[in-house]
Design a protein that fits this description.
- With 505 residues, the chain is α/β, with parallel strands linked by helices.
- 35% of the residues lie in helices and 19% in strands.
- The protein has an eight-stranded mixed beta sheet with strand order 7-8-10-9-13-17-14-15, sandwiched between helices. It has a six-stranded mixed beta sheet with strand order 1-6-5-2-4-3, sandwiched between helices.
- It has 16 helices and 17 strands.
- Bound molecules: zinc ion (ZN).
- The site of zinc ion has 6 residues, from helix 12.
Length: 505
């Protein structure tokens, strides 16, 4: 199946500083009109068809004084569907993204080729936030997702977004890059595991790297054996096909001298749990256990499209966690590439095994900042739900910045501790460390402590446990259960918070 990750590139976005008149409105089948929560006369006066819209909205408010959306058809030849939304100017970006998702869903149902977006009555920063969040949500809503139905749904018709009423055009480059990266992450994650095998995944990444001008290496199981990557290989050894390995992508900007960034992702294309096999309820959906790698890849794609001035290395740990006579077992002892010996406790904790060697390899390139993404632990979901993802760092000073990036991007995260004494729980009589425990207490923190062993102390490290990778009905501006959480977050962390340029010691 061809991966249509460039779908949203074909959508034109034009911005206008004037307000649209009736004639303009008549040319659209769908118009989105955004006003402040308690619209006053000067706000209404900026709208075309103000009299009709005001009367209908006030009727709506008389029925429900909290009503903030009116869906109505304008009395013109096109019967333009107007989606009138009122917004509290102090709403958080997460709230704006959620309301934008609802608007985008209505728009998607109408399936127009062009949409008019009129934002009236807000100060400049709020108007910018609204333009960004609405654009992000509309692009997310019209992205196709994989379908194997014999009668597939028609792709969305949208070709053009016309934004009106802005004091000044808004720079949407980051939103556009993010939407491509997020779409790629969601698409890959939604593919079934018999389609997205490690071999197919690698073949796609090879084509993508060529198209985007990245260098690519693939460390297959033989290359990993030479590097003594025993933790990764323990997981891969039960695969019926020898297709596991670590992809290494290099983005290099034209100008030299930027700070080096490394992105690492867990890419378990299917997780049976191994010999500690998962029950049906928990195995269902495990084709998405590669979402960390898809988020790392989507983030690289977005950064590369933005022409970021920093070199980026991206590492994807691609494998399947299978059952079978060759599978690794509890109490096996394996040696990772940095010499650490690991006592296996539970074969379903395979994510930290493949990441151990991948992180150790990534550290050899001496990045300034290393970020890894993984659908790693149920404990993180129990702690935060699927509304937030968990973050960990070997630099406490980073916590405030990590949280701010979550609040600003609307992909919310919360930090967990990473104190040394947690290691006592991972003490092994046989090896340097246990892989995990069977006690079930704070497994997300123990997993992060375990990974910390494979990250050099002098590297700023952020570990993202993707609790929010899948949420029924979507999350924020994303309408699908598969969220691709992390691309938008990381762009904010790097580009708005400047996490790469600062020293965090
Ligand atoms: Zn697992």
């Amino acid at each position: 199946m061809e991966i249509p990750y460039r779908h949203t590139e074909k959508i034109k976005i034009n911005q206008h500083t004037k307000d649209p008149d009736r004639k303009r409105m008549d040319a659209f089948r769908v118009a989105v009109l955004v006003l402040p929560d308690a619209p006053r006369k000067p706000h209404w006066e900026r709208l075309a068809y103000a009299d009709v819209l005001k009367a209908r909205f006030q009727r709506c408010r008389r029925r429900d004084k909290h009503a903030c959306q009116l869906l109505t058809d304008l009395p013109n030849a096109a019967g333009t569907r107007a989606i009138l939304q009122t917004v509290k100017p102090d709403a958080s970006n997460f709230e704006l993204l959620c309301s934008a998702r609802k608007i985008a869903a209505e728009l998607r149902a109408q399936d127009p080729t062009a949409v008019l977006l009129h934002i009236a009555g807000f100060d400049r920063p709020t108007a910018s936030r609204l333009t960004e969040t609405l654009t992000a949500a509309i692009l997310a809503a019209v992205c196709p997702m994989p379908s194997y139905k014999s009668k597939t749904d028609k792709p969305a018709a949208l070709k053009r977004i016309e934004v009106y009423g802005l004091e000044q055009p808004v720079d949407l480059a980051q939103v556009l890059a993010e939407s491509i990266g997020n779409h790629l992450a969601r698409w890959l994650s939604a593919l079934p595991a018999n389609d997205l095998t490690p071999a197919h995944y690698r073949a796609f990444v090879t084509k993508l790297a060529a198209a985007e001008g990245w260098k690519m290496d693939f460390l297959d199981t033989r290359a990993l054996a030479r590097r003594k990557a025993g933790a990764f290989l323990a997981v891969a050894q039960a695969s019926p096909v020898n297709d596991a390995g670590i992809v290494h992508l290099r983005y290099r900007p034209a100008a030299r001298g930027g700070q080096r960034l490394a992105l690492v992702g867990k890419g378990i294309c299917f997780d049976t749990g191994g010999v500690n096999i998962k029950p049906a309820r928990y195995m269902n959906g495990m084709h998405e256990d590669m979402q960390g790698s898809a988020v790392a890849l989507g983030t690289l794609l977005a950064l590369s499209r933005l022409g970021i001035e920093h070199p980026v290395d991206c590492w994807l740990a691609l494998a399947q966690n299978h059952i079978g006579s060759k599978a690794y077992k509890p109490n096996d002892v394996v040696t990772a590439s940095n010499g650490t010996t690991i006592e296996v406790i539970h074969t379903d904790a395979e994510g930290r095994m493949v990441l151990a060697d991948t992180l150790a390899l990534a550290c050899k390139e001496k990045p300034r900042l290393l970020i890894d993404y993984a659908t790693l632990t149920g404990a993180c979901i129990y702690s935060l739900s699927s509304r937030y993802s968990g973050v960990f760092s070997n630099r406490d000073a980073l916590h405030a910045t990590l949280t701010t990036a979550g609040r600003e991007s609307g992909e919310r995260v919360w930090p967990f501790p990473l104190d040394k004494d947690f290691d006592e729980d991972l003490k092994s009589t046989l090896a340097d460390t246990k892989q995990c425990t069977l006690d079930g207490e704070a497994d997300h923190i123990l997993a992060a402590r375990f990974l910390n062993r494979f990250v050099d102390d002098d590297i700023n490290w952020v570990h993202v446990d993707l609790a929010a990778s899948n949420r029924k009905g979507g999350l924020g501006h994303i309408p699908t259960d598969t969220t691709g959480f992390g691309v938008r977050y990381t762009l904010n962390l790097l580009l708005q918070q400047g996490a790469l340029e600062q020293s965090w010691n």
